[in-house]
């Protein structure tokens, strides 16, 4: 892998590397990155991997290779501005709805903010980073009281605390470093949206690359609600001459139009909603123009203007009704404001190809890049051209240290009925209980919905009371994972957040249960729009979107089982379509090469032996 990465960096040819769990793939790209002549950016999807790189892998590598790397081995972490505490907001106060600086919020949150401010001042005095990830335990609401977005920031030149600023110090350190570790979202904002966030670089290594298109989509998704327009108008009113009143009126029109619009994707946009978006856009533009040209170091004006500019940008995008975007109405959750509009890019492959891959060399790596046994599906989603169009990239599979055929069994419950829309059926619940009983706990259950996970947990608790059965929502995920690891006679059931990133090697996890093939919901506005676009382009929308989505998740979920060379176990998929449907072969080819069976007796005996009974 390291040799292939070096070749890619020197030749400028893009590279996809599938590297299974346990291959040490971070060293496979970190060594070439630190030896490369120009700056290299490493982008990850999860904080866990970012911490692993910065706090363990890179320091260990730099120390071990100090005689070779000398003083050139410099590295830094770079995150979005809102991930760093803002000293101006901490010391001067937070603007209220009218833009007046308020020292502390009312109620119990005030005490939490005081404690957070004390930690931030200690960070400033001690030369700390002021990063959210290092802060004491807190809620999103508390963090908003001590941080700002890039639009709310006064800027280092105008801010009285600019020389101490945590975010500016992080950027300065990055500008002096050979290696920068960041995240997919910041990479997308810098490269694709054109907002300069990262110092110039030559090569980008994208780890957890199977997540990239979803993270880029997320970074390019905007939301708009009437409540947000009203809040922006209140913040702007004292800094403008009446334009904020027009913005407040536009909020009323937007509320009526959004409430009247059907839930889900809007294609075409109803006329009254289109008219309301134009009203919001025009009123926001007039408001922005009415703010003082030079806000100086007035944080209230700067932040009110920043909010209004952000509102204008979103309303303008939605009003344009571009065929490159998907617009939909998201229903409000109980007791949470009104319905809101969402807009996301129909696809991100084009922008990635034009704005990232055109002038940077990219190395994509993950344990899951070959879907259906081929790199082409993922390569296309990342913006890489088909191989026949110019051979602009190479894909290699460096294998795995694990012997999946000897260490693991893939069990497909072919005898079960096809999953329905009404949750788990009795036959599936019986199968889950039988499998968990054979494994004597030791089960990670990955479910397609919270309702299914809770139903399975309730059934296992009732019928196997001697085992400990945990369900997502019973406690915070780190606490659930700790309990799961601490006692092998335990089951942990949950949804999407357990499918990726949970690392539980050893006898704790000898059975991974998957209730159904994880296709996206049929009413998902973005996925359905992408499938329709693929059909119109002459491709198979189901295979290009739904099956690809399912294959990625299945591969990630199955990957929870074997984490070391000594692990043994079963991946049980309770959906017969994996062997009966035409697309089943594509899905199976995306999984690790486990030994497969559809015989429940074989699996039950194997799990009983593994449990030591």
TrEMBL record:
<dbReference type="GO" id="GO:0043139">
    <property type="term" value="F:5'-3' DNA helicase activity"/>
</dbReference>
<keyword id="KW-0347">Helicase</keyword>
<dbReference type="InterPro" id="IPR027417">
    <property type="entry name" value="P-loop_NTPase"/>
</dbReference>
<comment type="similarity">
    <text>Belongs to the helicase family. DinG subfamily.</text>
</comment>
<dbReference type="GO" id="GO:0016818">
    <property type="term" value="F:hydrolase activity, acting on acid anhydrides, in phosphorus-containing anhydrides"/>
</dbReference>
<dbReference type="InterPro" id="IPR045028">
    <property type="entry name" value="DinG/Rad3-like"/>
</dbReference>
<dbReference type="Pfam" id="PF00270">
    <property type="entry name" value="DEAD"/>
</dbReference>
<feature type="domain" description="Helicase ATP-binding">
    <location>
        <begin position="1"/>
        <end position="259"/>
    </location>
</feature>
<dbReference type="Pfam" id="PF13307">
    <property type="entry name" value="Helicase_C_2"/>
</dbReference>
<dbReference type="GO" id="GO:0005524">
    <property type="term" value="F:ATP binding"/>
</dbReference>
<keyword id="KW-0547">Nucleotide-binding</keyword>
<dbReference type="InterPro" id="IPR006555">
    <property type="entry name" value="ATP-dep_Helicase_C"/>
</dbReference>
<protein>
    <recommendedName>
        <fullName>ATP-dependent helicase DinG</fullName>
        <ecNumber>5.6.2.3</ecNumber>
    </recommendedName>
</protein>
<dbReference type="GO" id="GO:0006139">
    <property type="term" value="P:nucleobase-containing compound metabolic process"/>
</dbReference>
<dbReference type="GO" id="GO:0003676">
    <property type="term" value="F:nucleic acid binding"/>
</dbReference>
<dbReference type="InterPro" id="IPR011545">
    <property type="entry name" value="DEAD/DEAH_box_helicase_dom"/>
</dbReference>
<keyword id="KW-0067">ATP-binding</keyword>
<dbReference type="InterPro" id="IPR014001">
    <property type="entry name" value="Helicase_ATP-bd"/>
</dbReference>
<keyword id="KW-0378">Hydrolase</keyword>
<dbReference type="InterPro" id="IPR014013">
    <property type="entry name" value="Helic_SF1/SF2_ATP-bd_DinG/Rad3"/>
</dbReference>
């Amino acid at each position: 892998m390291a040799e292939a990465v070096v070749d890619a960096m020197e030749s400028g040819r893009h590279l996809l590397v599938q590297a299974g769990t346990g291959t040490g793939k971070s060293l496979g790209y970190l060594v070439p990155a630190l030896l490369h002549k120009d700056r290299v950016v490493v982008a990850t999807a999860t904080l866990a991997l970012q911490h692993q790189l910065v706090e363990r892998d890179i320091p260990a590598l730099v120390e071990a290779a100090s005689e070779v790397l000398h003083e050139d081995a410099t590295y830094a972490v770079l995150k979005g501005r809102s991930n760093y505490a803002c000293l101006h907001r901490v010391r001067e106060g937070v603007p209220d709805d009218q833009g007046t600086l308020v020292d502390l919020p009312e109620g119990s949150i005030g005490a939490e903010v005081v404690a957070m401010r004390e930690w931030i001042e200690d960070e400033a005095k001690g030369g700390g980073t002021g990063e959210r990830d290092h802060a004491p335990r807190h809620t999103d609401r508390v963090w908003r009281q001590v941080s700002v977005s890039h639009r709310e920031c006064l800027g280092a030149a105008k801010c009285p605390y600019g020389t101490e600023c945590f975010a500016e110090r992080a950027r300065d350190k990055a500008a002096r470093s050979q290696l920068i570790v960041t995240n997919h979202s910041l990479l997308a904002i810098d490269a694709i949206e054109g907002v300069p966030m990262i110092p110039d670089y030559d090569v980008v290594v994208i780890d957890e690359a199977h997540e990239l298109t979803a993270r880029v989509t997320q970074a390019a998704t905007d939301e708009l609600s009437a409540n947000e327009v009203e809040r922006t108008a209140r913040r702007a009113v004292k800094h403008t001459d009446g334009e904020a009143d027009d913005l407040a009126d536009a909020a009323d029109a937007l509320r009526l139009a959004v409430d009247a619009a059907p839930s889900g994707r809007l294609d075409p946009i109803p006329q009254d909603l289109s008219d309301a978006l134009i009203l919001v856009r025009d009123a926001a533009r007039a408001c922005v123009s009415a703010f003082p040209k030079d806000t100086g170091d007035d944080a209230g004006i700067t932040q009110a203007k920043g909010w209004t500019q952000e509102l204008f940008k979103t309303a303008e995008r939605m009003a344009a009704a571009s065929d490159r975007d998907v617009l939909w109405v998201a229903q409000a959750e109980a007791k949470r404001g009104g319905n809101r509009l969402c807009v996301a890019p129909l696809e991100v492959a084009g922008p990635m190809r034009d704005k990232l891959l055109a002038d940077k060399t990219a190395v994509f790596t993950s344990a899951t890049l070959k879907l259906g046994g081929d790199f082409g599906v993922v390569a296309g989603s990342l913006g890489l051209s088909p191989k026949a169009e110019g051979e602009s990239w190479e894909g290699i599979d460096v294998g795995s240290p694990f012997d999946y055929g000897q260490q693991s069994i893939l069990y497909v419950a072919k005898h079960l009925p096809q999953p329905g829309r009404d949750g788990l059926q009795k036959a599936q619940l019986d199968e889950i209980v039988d499998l968990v009983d054979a494994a004597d706990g030791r089960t990670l259950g990955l479910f397609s919905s919270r309702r299914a996970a809770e139903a399975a947990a309730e059934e296992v608790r009732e019928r196997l009371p001697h085992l400990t059965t945990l369900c997502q929502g019973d406690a915070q995920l780190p606490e659930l994972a700790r309990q799961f690891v601490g006692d092998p006679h335990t089951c942990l059931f949950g949804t999407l957040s357990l499918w990726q990133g949970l690392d539980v090697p050893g006898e704790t996890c000898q059975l991974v249960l998957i209730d159904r093939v994880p296709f996206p919901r049929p009413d998902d506005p973005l996925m359905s729009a992408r499938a329709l676009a693929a059909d119109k382009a002459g491709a198979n929308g189901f295979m290009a979107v739904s099956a690809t989505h399912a294959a990625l998740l299945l591969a990630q979920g199955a990957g929870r089982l074997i984490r070391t060379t000594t692990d043994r176990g079963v991946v049980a998929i309770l959906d017969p379509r994996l062997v009966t449907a035409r697309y089943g072969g594509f899905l199976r080819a995306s999984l690790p090469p486990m030994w497969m069976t559809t015989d429940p007796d074989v699996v039950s005996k194997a799990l009983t032996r593994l449990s030591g009974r």
